[in-house]
């Protein structure tokens, strides 16, 4: 107990210190983010943009799809370009032509090599020189650059409008005609794109050769190449990771784990009678399966758009379901069904662990269910309406889609979801309270489950920190507080603690041993996970310290994953510990799959893109998608399914249970995911990375690459994996349908509290 208290103390110190550093970095980002000029003017006095136009342009882009329609500074979807990289390249090409005409009365391509080199030097100097005056807030451009800006702006005004000459390009970008009907918003949009590319090329004040985005994106025409810090901190992070893994292996080998206890002769939970609130969670799980089916369907449509653009096998589906909507639903539903499975699991186990049914617990469980259903349906419908009917920036922010990946629902829905998550934590706490206040071997595990739940709910507040006019660098800072800290922090802790708690209740592991192990694992997870958030922010207009801190702590995130395989193997052994454990076989195998995908998806594929030098060339390419699919579904999706199966085992008629349906479900989901990732996404990502390294980020995201024969072949090679995966989902749906027809559990009629007390 004394050793465990020390670990809790260290955990508190690490959390406080890590969040203090993260907040300090946030202050530095706020102070040193690329300035938004009050005016952008030419030397002849023509006003190109006002400051509020740049801000309005950011809102316009987000309302038109935002990060579901290409990227800015590398964050978003993969079919349309990175607009900052695209603008930068187009402006450099425009300047080449203008300088060639001004000095040599010839087009650039006709110039001899020596003269082209002179023009290239002029272009680089023009784009890298920072002419922003901090005192007046004015960004002054030469007349020749102002002309280049106007030429490039005309292209985007037509692209986001309805210029018929750009129909083919819009199709390649999976854009619909008239994405921004308002002429004022289209003009403002070009101001935002210009500003994002200006920050990517202009040298920081007093620092030659280093832009506000640390020279991202890669662009030879303006001298954007990796900084020295990018390379140095990449090497240092790899060395640190190897050393930390070696230290963990040494620690593990010198502190042999205690052997598992002899399992009970019978299932300790067999005679458990579900309480009313536990029964009320059953409908959550059927909604989970419905959301999985919907997510897979929208994923198929989204993937197909990368070939046909705005059609689905010839049918003009984008007229009623644009790419931006289908991808938003695909990504949003992934988060929602995983979260719903976890919420339901918490509500299911709370009475079991606490030993009683709190008053009105079933009512609270029902109210939360219908509230979540209202949020899911309402946010989806309003997001679709806002996009299809072009209801404007205010509607998009408050009710429609904010255009931010994984945090896209409108602010009103975010407020409601935040309240719902806090209400869930309250219900969970009510159920767990007797066990939290009573000394026992498993109290540490129960405490960790509850604290993780509180953090999952509480940290959703970070999605409420930005407003419509917040600087884009700060939006990204706060957005990753939510996305990264949920996935790499509190989800990991909640998952590990819940699995350990379930196994201890089944008598497969010792509660006292698990207590210490869980606190130690949480320390390791959060030590790298909290400050590892910064690896998402290398190129978003942040100080160079972000690269140093993010690189080192992101490398530490991989360290605990190196031991996951050992835990997965031990779980496999536990699945064979006693004959009755076979009743939970497929839930346990899902937990084993979590270990595999944690190592492969989060570990190998994650670290392959997380070092600064790798991410410099791979940000926003298909290797990111490969990591995202393998980690999000492979880890948290399989965990959600495993937890769901564990709960449904106690909520369903055992005669209706069908391992014959779960077996193909499990193998088809995992095999299909592996096919999708390694046959399609990884080769496509490597192909794009080569293009990025050789010619620049603009080229890796250009139609020439995205719609090349190789890349479109990779899209079609997703089909076999998608089909295998989809069939696995259908088996899960058939399994659920069988349970639905199986009626209520046929179990002992002993009083609920007596049963719960006996289990406890």
UniProtKB/TrEMBL annotation:
Keywords, alphabetical: Membrane, Transmembrane, Transmembrane helix
InterPro entries, per the entry: Cyt_c_oxase-like_su1_sf, Cyt_C_Oxase_1, NorB_cytochrome_c-like
Domain named Nitric oxide reductase subunit B cytochrome c-like: residues: 37-217
Bilayer-spanning residue ranges: 7-26, 231-251, 284-307, 334-355, 367-386, 412-433, 445-466, 478-503, 515-539, 545-566, 586-609, 629-648, 668-690, 723-740
Domain of life: Bacteria
Name of the featured protein: Nitric-oxide reductase large subunit
Naturally occurring in which organism (per UniProt): Massilia terrae
């Amino acid at each position: 107990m004394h050793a465990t208290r020390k670990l809790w103390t260290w955990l508190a110190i690490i959390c406080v210190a890590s969040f203090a550093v993260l907040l300090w970095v946030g202050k530095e980002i706020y102070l040193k983010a690329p300035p938004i000029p009050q005016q952008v003017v030419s030397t002849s006095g023509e006003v190109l943009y006002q400051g509020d136009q740049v801000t309005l342009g950011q809102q316009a882009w987000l309302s038109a799809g935002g990060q579901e329609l290409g990227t800015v500074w590398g964050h978003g979807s993969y079919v349309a370009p990175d607009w900052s990289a695209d603008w930068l390249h187009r402006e450099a090409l425009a300047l080449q032509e203008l300088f060639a005409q001004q000095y040599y009365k010839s087009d650039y391509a006709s110039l001899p090599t020596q003269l082209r080199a002179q023009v290239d030097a002029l272009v680089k100097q023009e784009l890298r020189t920072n002419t922003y005056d901090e005192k007046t807030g004015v960004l002054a451009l030469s007349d020749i650059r102002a002309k280049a800006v106007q030429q490039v702006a005309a292209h985007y005004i037509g692209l986001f409008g309805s210029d018929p000459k750009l129909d083919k390009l819009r199709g390649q970008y999976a854009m619909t005609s008239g994405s921004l009907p308002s002429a004022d918003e289209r003009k403002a949009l070009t101001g935002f794109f210009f500003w994002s590319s200006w920050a990517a090329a202009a040298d920081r004040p007093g620092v030659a050769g280093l832009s506000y985005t640390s020279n991202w994106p890669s662009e030879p025409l303006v001298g954007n190449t990796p900084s020295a810090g990018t390379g140095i901190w990449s090497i240092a992070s790899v060395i640190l990771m190897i050393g930390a893994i070696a230290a963990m292996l040494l620690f593990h080998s010198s502190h042999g784990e205690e052997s598992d206890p002899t399992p009970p002769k019978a299932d300790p939970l067999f005679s458990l009678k579900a309480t009313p609130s536990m029964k009320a969670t059953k409908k959550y799980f059927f909604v989970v399966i419905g959301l999985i089916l919907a997510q897979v369907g929208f994923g198929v449509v989204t993937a197909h758009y990368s070939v046909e653009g705005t059609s689905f096998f010839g049918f003009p589906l984008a007229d009623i379901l644009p790419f931006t909507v289908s991808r938003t639903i695909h990504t949003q539903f992934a988060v929602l069904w995983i979260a719903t499975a976890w919420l339901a699991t918490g509500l299911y186990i709370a009475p079991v662990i606490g030993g009683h049914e709190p008053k009105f617990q079933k009512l609270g469980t029902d109210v939360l269910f219908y509230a979540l259903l209202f949020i899911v349906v309402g946010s989806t419908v309003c997001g679709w309406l806002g996009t299809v009917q072009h209801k404007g920036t205010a509607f998009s922010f408050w009710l429609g889609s904010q255009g931010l990946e994984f945090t896209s629902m409108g602010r009103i829905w975010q407020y409601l979801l935040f309240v719902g998550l806090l209400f869930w934590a309250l219900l969970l706490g009510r159920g767990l309270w007797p066990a939290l206040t009573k000394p026992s071997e498993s109290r540490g595990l129960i405490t960790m489950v509850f604290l993780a739940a509180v953090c999952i709910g509480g940290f959703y507040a970070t999605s409420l920190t930005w407003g419509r006019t917040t600087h884009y660098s700060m939006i990204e800072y706060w957005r990753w507080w939510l996305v990264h800290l949920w996935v790499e922090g509190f989800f990991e802790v909640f998952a590990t603690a819940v699995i350990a708690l379930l196994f201890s209740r089944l008598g497969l592991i010792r509660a006292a041993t698990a207590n210490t192990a869980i606190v130690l694992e949480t320390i390791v997870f959060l030590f790298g996970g909290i400050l590892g958030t910064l690896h998402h922010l290398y190129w978003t207009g942040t100080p160079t310290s972000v690269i140093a801190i993010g690189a080192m702590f992101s490398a530490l995130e991989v360290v605990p994953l190196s031991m996951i395989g050992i835990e997965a193997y031990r779980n496999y052994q536990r699945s064979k510990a006693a004959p009755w454990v076979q009743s939970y076989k497929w839930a346990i195998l899902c937990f084993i799959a979590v270990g595999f995908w944690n190592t492969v998806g989060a570990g190998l594929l994650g670290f392959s893109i997380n070092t600064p030098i790798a991410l410099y060339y791979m940000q926003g390419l298909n290797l990111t998608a490969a990591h995202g699919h393998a980690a999000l579904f492979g880890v948290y999706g399989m965990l959600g399914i495993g937890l769901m199966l564990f709960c449904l085992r106690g909520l369903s008629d055992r005669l209706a249970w069908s391992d014959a349906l779960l077996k193909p479900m499990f193998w088809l989901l995992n095999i299909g995911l592996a096919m999708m990732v390694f046959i399609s996404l990884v080769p496509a990502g490597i192909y794009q990375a080569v293009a990025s390294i050789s010619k620049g980020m603009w080229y890796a995201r250009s139609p020439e690459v995205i719609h090349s024969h190789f890349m479109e072949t990779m899209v079609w090679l997703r089909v076999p994996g998608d089909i295998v995966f989809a069939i696995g989902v259908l088996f899960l749906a058939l399994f659920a349908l069988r349970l639905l027809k199986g009626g209520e559990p046929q179990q002992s009629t002993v009083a609920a509290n007596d049963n719960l007390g006996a289990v406890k």
